[in-house]
Design goal:
mainly alpha, 15 helices, ATP12_ATP_synth-F1-assembly_N, ATP12_ATP_synth-F1-assembly
């Protein structure tokens, strides 16, 4: 058993990290995950063996300062075993940009969500070392994060990799952090616009008819009422627009934009454009996973991050799917895989924002 070279992970999020590790172990033990991975003829970085023994965390300069040392001391850095993209491209998403040090410095400096001013005295940055060699991102940037707790959560992911293969799908938190440094910091407009477009067809704003489809309407009310109430209060009293009807009419309704008040739309726009790269990446991941910008905002700004909150978010995001499963049964190898994968991805995004908050916004 490989160990992280420190006696204990910081206490403030130890329980959350432990729950996250349990999910990763569950995904490894899943017959679905094993089958889907073994059926592919994996080559190259996908079949990279674990080449390191020790994983530890050390302090370091911020990313934009550490870059100056990278070329001078390149041999002491550990290249990322995770490929940046396919066919020698910068990334699979195609949104990579040339590195602008000034932009990277601005977007990677922590800000309280909703504020455009960076936190003062951001001196504590940390990196992961594999056998005493600091790790780089897939695009070759120094892997540095502004949270010790986040660094230990990342180290836990690297430490969980088994001997026979390094599996990037088992490191969703590493994926989010690398995305923040390599992609979001360079292409903020892409991520901002992609998040905002979900507001037009937000999942939690399509309600079943309370007379014709009472059962699913009750589930929606139970899962979504707190989100709607919180969003209304957060936006200054402007409730989200909703569409209501039976299943057939919803297909037509989703072709039109929801009737959100302009004030609510502006509040969402202002929040998204205030976020640093870390929180923007977390919000983007939560929005994509839940198909709801409003639910993602609720999760991002919530100060009580826990496994219970993630479970409730999963329930809110999958009301219709779970209703159909309860009526028609579960398809093994599809529904259970979707549940597990969505839970892991949402846990990773929640853990990212909770780690940042624990070390920087706790007061």
């Amino acid at each position: 058993m490989y160990i992280i070279t420190r006696d204990s992970i910081p206490r403030n999020l130890r329980r959350c990290i432990a729950g996250y590790e349990a999910l990763l172990r569950a995904s490894k033990q899943s017959s679905i995950t094993r089958r889907s991975f073994s059926e592919r003829k994996a080559t190259g970085p996908e079949r990279r063996r674990r080449f390191y023994v020790h994983v530890d965390v050390v302090s370091c300069p911020p990313v934009w300062e550490e870059r100056n040392k990278l070329h001078k001391d390149n041999k002491s850095m550990q290249e990322s075993p995770i490929s940046a993209g396919v066919d020698n491209t910068d990334s699979a998403s195609g949104v990579a940009r040339g590195v602008d040090k000034q932009q990277q410095s601005h977007t990677l400096q922590l800000r309280v969500p909703g504020s455009h001013e960076p936190l003062k005295n951001q001196l504590n940055w940390f990196t992961i070392r594999l056998d005493e060699r600091p790790l780089k991102t897939p695009l070759g940037h120094p892997l540095a994060v502004p949270s010790e707790t986040l660094a230990y959560a990342l180290a836990a992911e690297w430490n969980c990799q088994v001997v026979d293969v390094i599996n990037p799908t088992q490191m969703p938190l590493m994926t989010l952090v690398a995305t923040s440094i390599d992609q979001t910091a360079q292409a903020t407009d892409f991520y901002q616009n992609n998040i905002l477009r979900y507001l037009r067809t937000d999942t939690v704003c399509y309600w079943a008819d309370p007379m014709e489809e009472r059962s699913i309407h009750r589930r929606q009310q139970s899962a979504w009422k707190d989100v709607h109430a919180w969003i209304t209060e957060w936006s200054g009293g402007y409730a989200p627009g909703v569409a209501m009807g039976h299943a057939e009419s919803m297909l037509m309704a989703k072709q039109k934009q929801l009737p959100h008040p302009p004030q609510l739309q502006q509040a969402c726009h202002n929040l998204v454009h205030s976020l640093d790269a870390w929180h923007l990446t977390a919000l983007h991941a939560m929005t994509i996973e839940t198909k709801s910008m409003l639910l993602a905002i609720f999760l991002l700004l919530s100060k009580s991050g826990s496994i219970k909150d993630v479970a409730a978010a999963m329930e809110a995001a999958r009301v219709e799917e779970e209703f159909n499963i309860s009526n028609w049964g579960l398809v093994e190898g599809q529904h259970d895989y979707d549940r597990l994968n969505a839970s892991i991805q949402l846990h990773a995004a929640m853990l990212l924002k909770d780690c940042l908050a624990a070390d920087n916004f706790s007061s």
